[in-house]
Specification:
Number of helices: 9
Shape: globular
Radius of gyration: 18 Å
Strand content: under 5%
Number of domains: 1
Distance between the termini: 65 Å
Order of helices and strands: HHHHHHHHH
Number of strands: 0
Structural class: mainly alpha
Length: 212
């Protein structure tokens, strides 16, 4: 299989996977209305990142970057809407505005150097996984978090890594590495459950054992 065909194949795969971005979380909250342990800031930052990637793909004239990033927006937006309707905590939403401002500043200096934008976009997944991980690891009840969203991210990371190498998009490789670590940590947290029945792993609290 020649190089061009491989690029197209993995471009299609990343786009198909991106279509599911946000959908597992949307389905879970829509079904039971449970938003426990879910970070609203994580989803809103991810939408900002997806829009930025679309614009970056246009600038690169890379159709697969545009399609992959654009495909993620509907699912993420649906998840954001259902979280808002179910009164998810708005803690940390300030990060969304800070992230949008940082990307705008990096884009403004592209005529001089594109390095800041490439670095920020490569690390953009941090603005999705970091708020989500912080919320999950400092909250006892994570029953509202959809495991499928993180398994999907882990799968997408593997495909994006290959595409980033084949299509020479370094930001995709960085994105894939951070995604893998973030998804792994979230899946570990979801398997742990609450410590002593009521405490989050990173919360400062003491557990009182109930009498037998």
């Amino acid at each position: 299989m020649d190089h061009g065909t491989l690029v197209t194949l993995f471009g299609v795969l990343t786009t198909l996977l991106a279509l599911g971005y946000g959908v597992p979380q949307w389905l879970k909250v829509r079904k039971d209305g449970n938003v426990s342990g879910v970070s609203l800031a994580s989803i809103s930052c991810a939408i900002v990142s997806a829009v930025a990637w679309v614009l970056y793909g246009v600038w690169l004239q890379d159709i697969w970057v545009v399609l992959t990033s654009g495909a993620a927006i509907p699912g993420l937006t649906a998840a954001l809407v259902v979280l808002l309707r179910n009164h998810a905590s708005r803690e940390g939403v300030w990060m969304t505005w800070a992230w949008a401002g940082a990307l705008t500043a990096a884009a403004a200096v592209v005529p001089v150097t594109e390095t800041p934008l490439v670095v920020l976009l490569g690390c953009s997944i941090l603005w999705y996984v970091a708020p989500a991980l912080w919320t999950a690891w400092t909250t006892a009840d994570v029953s509202g978090v959809a495991p499928g969203a993180w398994y999907l991210l882990l799968t997408e990371a593997a495909v994006c890594a290959v595409y980033g190498v084949l299509a020479d998009v370094p930001a995709y490789v960085v994105y894939a590495a951070i995604s893998s670590v973030g998804a792994g940590l979230m899946l570990v947290r979801l398997r742990m459950g609450p410590r002593c029945g009521r405490c989050a792993p990173l919360a400062r609290c003491s557990c009182v054992l109930e009498p037998a």
